[in-house]
Amino acid sequence: MERLDLVQFHWWDYDVAGYVESALELARLRGKGKIAHIGVTNFDAQHLREILDAGVPVISLQAQYSLLDQRPRNGIDALCRSRDIACSATVPWLGASCRSAGWHAGSPATS
Q1: Residue 74: closest CA among 43, 44, 106
Q2: How far apart are CA 11 and CA 23, in angstroms?
Q3: What is the tens place of the pLDDT at every residue in 57-66?
């Protein structure tokens, strides 16, 4: 395989430095033709904006979203619309069950 069609980039702990630099490395690989598109998973608006402002061409966001977990409505949806970034939901049906079981405790995607 010479090129990946899409790389979904995820960073769990924003207190650990390097997510912008890592995203920039993906952009560099995209420039070399190794990656066709860059997406992100569970980024909040503030941290996605930092990556975009650094020049990383993000085309998609995959976020936890359900009837009870509507954090994407706290700014990330507007940012994605303004930057023409496609959004998709993960665990839309299981979100509430998983969260009540404690599986999402400490998730960084809070806005």
Answers
A1: 44
A2: 10
A3: 999 999 877 7
